[in-house]
Amino acid sequence: MTIILAPMEGLLDFVLRDILTRVGGVDRCVSEFIRITDRLLPSRVFYRIVPELHAGGRTPAGVPVRAQLLGSDPACLADNAGRLAELGPAGIDLNFGCPAKVVNRHGGGAALLDEPEVLLAIVSAVRRAVPAAMPVSAKMRLGFNDGRRAVECALALEAGGAGELVVHARTKADGYRPPAYWERIAEIRSAVGLPVVANGEIWTLDDALRCRAVSGCSALMLGRGMVADPGLAGAIRAFDADPARAPQGLHWPELFPQVAAFWQLVRRTIEPRHQHGRLKQWLNLLRRRFPEAQAAYDAVRTLTDPRDIDRWMATQPVEYGSCDAVVVSV
To answer: Which of 7, 124, 163, 283 lies 20 to 30 Å from 203, alpha-carbon distance?
Structure first.
């Protein structure tokens, strides 16, 4: 059983990776994508997006982080992968699933799922450019407008040398609308010989169990579900350890110290004008699982001055100053 924390541009950055891996249950993370266009990026760009590179490619909790690259030029991706490999990530992941229009317009992300031959060229070039011992994985959706070429794309990624494949069980056209078509992951898994990880619409323990049953995958990648319920990975592990004992899940008094630690990290590492938005963004997702998060969200919703949020934090039952925030160098 492997549980991977998903890359989520604009949400799941090094700050939230730090907090969620402290909570526990996650085996590995993938960074948000590093966009590669037509030049070799300086090392500082890789360090900025994946500051865990300063710590051996691991979060402060010790969870390894693979750095994700996104682009469409095999040679340029290979050059950048080679430089990135020198910085010591836990592996390199390639993004063939991003549905963002600005990315797709430039031939990146999910747009490449209409060109399996380019997928093959990219993975082959990157695999050759990095040390043999460094893992190279890929993440794909079922397709762009439809999923007719999903198996063909997966086979191309395998032929290029990918050692693991994460499949988000929706097309680009599906976006993030439910449902996720986990049965299509089973088709891909049957066609390839490399490990396949199931991803998409896993919000609860029941979702995770059904996804594993339908897809046939033991490994899962958790994204918004883990952000909304940081105890989800732990609940899955607790069920696997003893299915007869219902997992208790994470309660708000246990989680709030991590929310406070998250705010401390945001205050230290994020530009001030964006700080209030980052806290509201997470609380907004936490409302799905925790009624107390709704009250917290309502309390800070109109606050834009970080100092006002500091004062609100100081009024909460858990002492704000007692939270142990570990800052990764940026």
So the answer is: 163
Instruction: Return the CATH number at 263.
Output: 1.20.225.30
Q: How far is CA 223 from CA 27, 122, 200, 239, 272, in A?
A: 14, 25, 8, 19, 26
Beta carbons of 53 and 88 less than 8 angstroms apart: yes
Q: What is the CATH number of the domain that holds 46?
A: 3.20.20.70
For residue 164, give the nearest of 188, 190, 137 by alpha carbon. 137
pLDDT in tens, 22-50: 999 999 999 999 999 999 999 999 999 99
Residue 294 belongs to some domain of the structure = yes
**Chain centroid offset of residue 328 CA:** 18
Helix (H, G, I), strand (E, B) or coil at 89: coil
Q: Report residue 105's pLDDT band, with 50, 70 and 90 as the boundaries.
A: low
Question: Of 29, 98, 153, 323, which one is the catalytic site residue?
Answer: 98
pLDDT band (50, 70, 90) for residue 103: confident
Same domain for 165 and 190, yes or no, is yes
Give the pLDDT of residue 329: 39
Residue 98 is among the residues annotated as catalytic for this protein: yes
Q: Is the pTM of this model over 0.90?
A: yes
| Chain centroid, CA 319 distance in Å | 30
DSSP states of 30-83 as a string?
A: EPPPEE--SSPPPHHHHHHH-GGGGGTTB-TTS-BEEEEEE-S-HHHHHHHHHH
Range of the domain at 305: 252-322
Domain identity same for 60 and 128: yes
For residue 8, the cross-strand partners are 12
18 belongs to a structural domain: yes
- Asked if residues 328 and 52 have their Cβ atoms less than 8 Å apart, the reply is yes
